[in-house]
Amino acid sequence: MSAEERRESVIRAAITEFARGGYDATSTEAIAKRVGVSQPYLFRLFPNKQAMFLAAAERCLLDTRKVFADAAEGLEGCDVVSAMAAAYQRLIVDDPEKLRMQMQTYAAVASAGAAGDQEFGEALRTAWLRMWDEVHLALGADAEETTSFFAYGMLINTLTSLGYPAGHRVWSGFYDSAKPVS
Length: 182
Description:
Elements: H1 3-25, H2 28-35, H3 39-45, H4 49-72, H5 78-94, H6 96-114, H7 119-138, H8 143-161
């Protein structure tokens, strides 16, 4: 395997491990074991645990941006919202690690900030803002529509993370494309 392929496998393993345990509780040893390499080899690819976490979190955001962009391609108006909402629902159902990694990312950035480390979250805020900007443009640069879309998305993240099943009354106010797949 090339170094780039190995790096990619480390990012995938880091997503799995960090999604399960969060930043603080995940060891680089667990990531190395999942990949099948030694810890010293990990540190040839990434300078430290924080760099691995940032790469994993940025990859999740990149994957989500791609899901939104692919869903919106060639569409206009309310069709864009419906397509992106449905595509996001499929993403978190088909790959629940993406949702867990997102939630762990928010918690890690908030914890670092509370401890006085604003720099930790800077790259992730930049990556998240890039996603916001792309969705904003796909929604016709309508600030209210963009805010509503992300507000629904964060509520979906919360309700899904809490384990509310499809069909539960908490989903009744969502537009159909934003409701969970049964």
